[in-house]
Amino acid sequence: MAKIEENVPSQVEETSDDMKMLDDLTNSEYKWGFITDIDSDTVAKGLNEKVVIFISQKKNEPEWMTEWRLKAFRYWQKMEEPKWANVKYPPIDFQNISYYSAPKQKPQLNSLEEVDPELLKTFEKLGIPLEEQKILSGVAVDAVFDSVSVATTFKEALKEKGIIFSSVSEAVKEHPDLVKKYLGSVVPYTDNYYAALNAAVFSDGSFVYIPKGVRCPMELSTYFRINSQETGQFERTLIIAEEGAYVSYLEGCTAPIRDNNQLHAAVVELVVLDNAQIKYSTVQNWYPGDKEGKGGIYNFVTKRGACRGKNSKISWTQVETGSSITWKYPGCILQGDNSVGEFYSVAVTNNYQQADTGTKMIHIGKNTRSTVVSKGISAGHGNNSYRGLIRVGKNAEGARNFTQCDSMLMGDKCGAHTFPYIEVENESAKVEHEATTSKIGEDQIFYLNQRGIATEDAVNMIVNGFCKEVFKELPMEFAVEAQKLLAISLEGSVG
Amino acid sequence: MLSIKNLKANIDGKEILNGIDLEIKTGEVHAIMGPNGSGKSTLANVLTGNKSYEVTEGEILFEGKNLLEMDPETRAREGMFLAFQYPIEIPGISNATFLKTALNEIRKYNNQPELTPKEFLERIKEKAKILGLDDTLISRAVNVGFSGGEKKRNEIFQMLMLEPKFVLLDETDSGLDIDALKIVSSGVNVYRKPTNAVLVITHYQRLLDYIVPDYVHVLSKGRIIKSGGKELALELEDKGYDWIKTEELEAENA
Description:
heterodimer, A: alpha/beta, ten-stranded mixed β-sheet, 23 strands, about 35% strand, B: alpha/beta, Rossmann fold, six-stranded mixed β-sheet, 8 helices, 12 strands, about 35% helix, globular
C-alpha cells in the first residue's frame, strides 16, 4: 500500500504490486478455505413458525419484530421460488437448511480483548487484524462472523458526530423508531421470494445512520463470513443518510470451502434524503465451487436504494468473483427530483460459475439520471448474464439513462448474455444502451508477450484494463483487493 | 548476434518461409525487402515467437542461444524487440503502466534492479522528447484512439524505453507521411549503437534513405534470393521487383 503514495501515475505501482502478489497466489486453491474450530450454537434444520420465533427470541427482539418476521414467513410460504433467472441448479430443499448459527461467546463485549481468540485468529487469516486496522487504515469495522456481530470498532469517534454504526440486532433494541420507520421500506418482505425468506429469518447485519448534514469521516466496512456448514446466511443491512449526509460503505466477503451448496439470501436497503449520498461498494469472493462445479455458495441477494430526497445520489459498485450462482440486481428508486443512481459492476464467472446480475433504475422524479456500467467476464464453462431494467415513469420529465454493457469471453465453452429491459412512459426521457462482446485477443496477449510480459500477467493486464471504469469507482484499497481477486479467479483460464 | 539457418515455417499448413539463411552481427543494420506475400512479416513473427506460426525446420541462434526453445516473453527479455506493423490496442491500460511492467520484467530477468519512479519518469521525458511526443501520451491507454502515425511513433518510443539489443522494424514506414517518417527514423538512428543491431523489413526503399542499412536482402517466395549493400535497394527501386524475379528465373533456366 505504502508504495502507491509515491509520485508516479498510480496505476503503475498498483499493477506491479499486483504482479508480485500474483506470484504468491498462483496455484493456490481457494485461499480462504478453512473452518474455524469453535462451538457454534446452531438450530436444527428446517423452517417453521417455531424456528422464526426461536431466532427472534435468541436475539431478544421486541414483539413487533417477531410479528414482522412471522408475517414475512407466512407470506413466503405462499410464494413460489422464482425460475426466470438464466441459471441452472438442482432444487433447494428449504427444510434441509439450518437457519441460525451463532458462535458461542460472552454476551456483552466491551473491547476486543473479550472476543473469542479463535474468532480473532480467523479475522487475522482473512487479513483484517482489527487492532491494526484501527490504527492504520482508518476504516471502522463491523465484523460479522456467521450470524452474530462480534466486534465493532471506532464506535466512539462516530458517536461524537451522531453517526450510528452497529449491528441490526443492536439497532432493533437501541433505535427501534428508526428501524421501524425504515426496515422493509425499500425492500418490503412482499418484494420477492428471497426477500421474504430473509425478513423471516435474517440473522444479523449492519445498521448505519448518518444524521443531517454529517459527512461520515471514514469509510465504513463490514466483513461477512459464512462459517458453519450448511448454515444459510441471511444478512440484513440498512443504511440511512439524512439530509445532506454522506457515507461510503464497503462490504467484503470471503467464505470457507464446503462440499454442499450453501444458500445466502441477503437484503440491503439504502435510504437517501435531500442532497445526501451513499456510496456502496462490494467485493464478493465467496466460495465459487471447485473446478468441476461441485460446491459453492448460492448468492441470491436483493439490494436496493431509495433516493427519496431531491439531489440525492446512490452509487453501487460491485466486483463479483465468487459464488457458484449469483442472482443480484442492486437498484435505485430515483424518487427525488434531480436524484442520481449509478451502478458499476464487474462480474466474473469461471469454471462452472453462473451469474445473472445487473441493476434496476426506476426513474420517478424529474430530471433523474442514471448510469450503468457492467463488465461481464466469462471463462471456463462460466455463464454470465446481464439483466437490467430501466424504467422511466410518466412524471419523470427529463430523465436520462446511459447503459454500457460489455462482455469479455475467454475460451470457447463459456457464455455471455444480455437481457436489457427498457420501459419508458415519458417522451422527454433519453435512454441509451450500448453493448459489446469481445474475445480476449491472441494478438493482444502476443503484443504484451513481445514486451516481456508473461501470458498470465498479460491476461490480468487486459482484464484489468477492461474493468478499469469500474475499478476506478472503488476506494483505493478495495481496488487493489479487487484486482487480486480477479487474478485469482481467472487463473489458468487462457493458454 | 542473430544467426538463422535454413528456416522453414508455415501458417495453417501453408508454407511461407522456405529455407532462410541470414547472419546479423552486432552493430549492423540489415534491410529485408520484398513484394507483398514474400514472407517478410512471417519472418518477424517467427523470430519473436508468435504461436500462430509453426517452424518446421531450421535453427535460430540469438547470441548463441537457441531462440526456438524460448517463449515470446523470454525472447523479449533476452533483448529482442518487434516494432509491430499493426500495433495492438489495450483499452484501460495506460502506456505508463504497460511500459513500467514491461521494463521491470525485462530488468528482473537480467538481474537488474527496478527503476525508481523518478528514474522511470526521467527516462520517459528524455525519450518522448526525441520523438516529439506529448507527455500526455504516457497516461493514455496503449494505442487506443491513436492515429496510424502515433501508433508507429509509440512503437519506436517503446523501443527507446526498453533498450533492446536487437530490433525488428516490421513495415514501420507504412502509413507514415514524410515528416513522421523522418521522426521515426531519427528515433531509430538514436538507438543505433555498435552494441546492438537492427533488421528493417520494408516494401519501399524510401525508409532506407533515413535508416541507411549496411546490407540489403531481397525476399521472394520465402527465400532470400539476392543480397547486397545499400545500393541494392536503390537498384530495386529503380527496376522494380520483377527485375530480380526475371534475373532469378534466368539463373534457374541457365
